[in-house]
């Protein structure tokens, strides 16, 4: 009888951890979008700075992000996971307020499509998503790792486990778990 209580407790705790963590099927989530939502996913065909929040999500490459970063003294690239309740799932508007107070340019890039729509029209900035077509995989962990390794030039554990990537004068400095 005592063993059954222990087993039930372990199962309950395991279920709680799974339901409150950032565990997600490894896909990008694009195939789960409605047809209407897919119409709001666009390839970024101009400078990232020219994009305004118009309710669309723009697919970007490392080259485009680097070009944007080079236009600012200080930049934070937020590796956003909308379905996550941890620091990498914090609302972008909250991060934007913090960056504005510090005069740091913010670029929000979602690794996935899950939970991103609808994009709030009161955002004062656009949202971007990794253009995973260049990586020939739909596994967000695989293409996300390749994207951020190429963007930062870093393979450090610090960069891999944190969501806020800080650049100064176009050069990657470090990554933070919170901002």
How would you characterize the largest beta sheet? 7 strands, mixed
Oligomer: single chain
Task: Give the CA-CA distance, first to last residue.
Answer: 48 Å
For the largest beta sheet, what order do the strands appear in spatially? Answer: 1-2-5-4-3-6-7
Give helix and strand order, one letter per element, not per position.
HHEEHEHEEHHEE
Spans with pLDDT under 50 lasting ≥5 residues?
A: 9-24
**Helical residue percent?**
25-40%
Radius of gyration: 18 Å
How much of the sequence lies in strands comes to 15-25%
Structural class: alpha/beta
Overall average residue pLDDT? 83
Annotation, overall tally of beta strands:
7
**Helical region count?**
6
Q: What form results from the Cα inertia axes? A: globular
How would you briefly describe this protein structure?
With 179 residues, the protein is α/β, with parallel strands linked by helices. It is 33% helix and 20% strand. A hairpin with a 2-residue loop joins strand 6 and strand 7.
SSE topology sketch:
Blueprint lengths: L1 H19 L14 H4 L2 E3 L13 E4 L1 H8 L4 E7 L11 H10 L3 E6 L16 E4 L9 H13 L4 H5 L2 E5 L2 E6 L3
Parallel strand pairs: 1-2, 2-5, 3-4, 4-5
Antiparallel strand pairs: 3-6, 6-7
Q: Could you please describe the fold and organization of this structure?
A:
With 179 residues, this protein is α/β, with parallel strands linked by helices. The protein has helices spanning 2-20, 35-38, 62-69, 92-101, 140-152, 157-161, and strands spanning 41-43, 57-60, 74-80, 105-110, 127-130, 164-168, 171-176. Strands 1-2-5-4-3-6-7 form a seven-stranded mixed sheet.
């Amino acid at each position: 009888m005592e063993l059954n209580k222990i087993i039930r407790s372990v199962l309950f705790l395991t279920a709680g951890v799974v339901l409150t963590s950032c565990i997600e099927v490894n896909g990008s989530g694009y195939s789960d979008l409605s047809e209407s939502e897919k119409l709001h996913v666009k390839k970024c065909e101009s400078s990232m700075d020219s994009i305004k929040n118009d309710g669309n999500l723009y697919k970007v490459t490392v080259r485009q992000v680097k070009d944007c970063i080079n236009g600012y003294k200080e930049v934070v690239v937020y590796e956003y996971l909308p379905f996550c309740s941890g620091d990498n799932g914090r609302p972008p508007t909250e991060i934007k307020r913090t960056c504005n107070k510090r005069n740091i340019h913010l670029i929000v890039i979602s690794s996935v499509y899950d939970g991103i729509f609808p994009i709030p029209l009161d955002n004062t900035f656009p949202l971007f998503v990794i253009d995973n077509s260049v990586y020939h995989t739909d596994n967000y962990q695989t293409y996300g790792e390749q994207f951020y390794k190429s963007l930062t030039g870093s393979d450090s554990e610090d960069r891999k486990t944190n969501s806020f990537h800080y650049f100064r004068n176009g050069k990657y400095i470090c990554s933070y778990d919170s901002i």
